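Comment thread on ticket #2218

A.B. wrote:
> Attaching the input chain for the structure job we discussed in standup.
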Amino acid sequence: MKLIVISDPVYFKDEAHLINQLFDAGMLLFHLRKEGFSRQAYAALIDGIDKRFHDRIALHQFHELVVDFPSLNRLHYPEWLRKETIVKGLPIAMGNYTHSTSIHHLDELNDLTGFDYTFYGPVFNSISKPGYAGIANIDFVLPRHIHSPKIIALGGITAEKIDPVKQMGFDGFAVLGAIWTEKEEEIQNLKHLINSNKQTSSNSFN
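C.D. wrote:
> Ran it. Output below, let me know if you need it in another format.
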């Protein structure tokens, strides 16, 4: 299954250096989400990340930065931005970009024309947001939507929960707390997730 890492929501010293180390350790796809960041600070963080990794970074905000960093080709639309864009009648699928979004209800899959994949969750109780309860029980199985984008499990996912996520029918999973909660253990946390994920069959997408 595809393993996606979401950035720590809070800036920390030498963050770009650590992100480069995570890429070198095997991180394949990185979602850069920094709510409250200025455009300048967001761009400075991207600039600190090695350019050879830019095509593996998905922007959650300031999509216009693809002009300044032409190797960036992944755009994430948080739920509010997706709905706002649709209300304004603006197109989602533009250029040779990979588009992603987030949903909390499966019936929203019908509204995701133009998206390559979507986060869905929280599947389990959130690690990074205590009290944010999961929506899936152990018997949960995703219904098959023939024309839907790939569905990525989000929320409370640890190495021990990768196999249950696979059995639920997800195409991949995204992690935040499982990487960032233990400071100075981020690289080891990633390697543990990668090794655990190798026990599942590959289900890749662009």
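A.B. wrote:
> Thanks. Noting for the ticket: The mean pLDDT is 90.
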